[in-house]
Amino acid sequence: MTRQNVWASKRLKSVPESVFLLMDKAKSRARAAGKTVIDLSIGASDLAVPSELILELERAARDPDTWGYCLKSCTSRFLREAAAWFERRFGLSLDPQEQVLSLIGSQEGLAHLLLAVTDPGEAILLPEVAYPSYWGAAALAGLRTVPLPLGEDLLPVFDDLDETALQGARVLLLNYPNNPTAAVADRPFWRRALEFAERHDLLLVHDNPYIDMVYEGEAVSPLTLPGALERTIELFSFSKSFHMGGFRLGFALGNADAVAALEAAKAPVDFNQYLGIQRMGIAALRLPPERVLKDVQVFRARRDALVEAMRRAAVPVKVPKASMYLWLRLPSGMDDVSFALSAVEHAGVALAPGQGFGPGGKGYVRFALVQPPEVLAEAGRRIAQLLD
After folding, report:
1. Contacts of 235 (CB under 8 A, 6+ apart)
2. Which of 35, 143, 308, 369 has its CA 20 to 30 A from that of 299?
3. Considering the domain boundaries, does residue 2 fall inside one?
4. Where are the alpha helices (DSSP H) in 186-313?
């Protein structure tokens, strides 16, 4: 019997239950039984942080100027660097003080942003398959979620939405290149999304941690579209491109009012990230693009190894166009949670059940490309045997 927490708020009780806790317990049981588990359930980069960034952190740790609280002025250098990086990348100049804000990771930034720009009872629109923290952040903000159906290209379809579902809608939240589907959104899609946001007076929020992990097509910044700065804010992370997941650093760019609201919401909660980690971020943004692309090729090779192994075993898979994931549709009627638990127990492979990513994820599992090619190929063969 599950014990009820008498101190838990109604908002907390509305947070969706995590199927990943079930997976964590399953992995623990398998390891306790002496089994080796190929863990592809967590999307944390296993590549090394660039040595230049570690050197910056070591220097900063010995600098007494980095030891105190870090208020807004302390982040100015980081904000200028983020704005300069964005201008080099996309050709759009932004005001570092008004249109850029440092984050303790984009996940933290999104949770605070929803608190900053919405009121309880309003609605947020997001794809029916989305990163799990989106659903949790929306629940903690007291929002009603409106799942957007996905088309064959795994991009949201805006045309068939019930107008009553859009009443009280405040935010449209998107993420491309996507976790978990690996879909890439092109410029025409972003024009449709922005037009939809304008028509319904929505703030367009784009979470963009996989900006560099693209194998086919390009990662578009919706901020570069005409008129986008009137209602768009974009979140960037150092976790994927620079393998800094544990260091918790990111930044927000875009509409000055949305940035100001986010800054005001964060003010009573945090003093910004440690200055030494900000210096790591500055060094990361100054790395030559080819350094980042070299690591992207590592994930491309992993993708190819996993896809080839599964296709050789006659498992139909879509080749991921981006990100560090493969999104696999299970045979009709197969429960994804049960299959993922069985995969740990009988195949020694841990996957992420699709239900953890929203109502559209039922019947899917996600592979994270966080092992060498030969290990991923072996995992693919085991999963294929289990599916047979």
Report:
1. 103, 106, 109, 110, 113, 205, 206, 207, 208, 209, 250, 251, 252
2. 35
3. no
4. 187-199, 256-266, 275-285, 289-312
Same domain, 349 and 383: yes
Q: Are 319 and 307 spatial neighbours (Cβ–Cβ below 8 Å)?
A: yes
DSSP state of 331: P
Tokens of 325: 């994931």
Task: Please indicate, yes or no, whether residues 70 and 208 belong to a single structural domain of this protein.
Answer: yes
- Report how far residue 37's alpha carbon sits from residue 94's, in angstroms, rounded to the nearest whole number: 46
- Helix residue ranges, H only, 267-388: 275-285, 289-312, 336-342, 373-387
Same domain, residue pair 272 and 167:
yes
Q: In this structure, what CATH number is given to the domain that contains residue 110?
A: 3.40.640.10
| Same domain as 328, residue 273 | no
Alpha carbon 85 to chain centroid, angstroms: 20
Mark whether 66 and 176 lie in a shared domain: yes
pTM of the model: 0.95
Both 204 and 317 in one domain: the answer is no
| Interval 334-374: pLDDT, tens | 999 999 999 999 999 999 999 999 999 999 999 999 999 99
User: Does residue 263 contact residue 62 with C-beta atoms inside 8 Å?
Assistant: no
The enclosing domain of 330 has a CATH number of 3.90.1150.10
| Domain assignment of residue 97, given as a range | 51-285
Rounded Cα distance, 321 and 331, in Å: 22
Domain end residue (candidates: 257, 285, 313): 285
Pair 123, 246 in one domain = yes
Count of alpha carbons within 13 Å of 231, Cβ hemisphere only? 19
Q: Mapping DSSP to helix (H, G, I), strand (E, B) and coil, where does residue 237 land?
A: strand
For residue range 372-382, list pLDDT tens digits in order. Answer: 999 999 999 99
Under the banding of pLDDT at 50, 70 and 90, the label for residue 2 is: low
pLDDT of 21? 85
Query: CA–CA distance from 105 to each of 45, 216, 244, 251 (Å)?
Result: 15, 26, 10, 7
Q: What is the pLDDT of residues 97-146, one digit of tens each?
A: 999 999 999 999 999 999 999 999 999 999 999 999 999 999 999 999 99
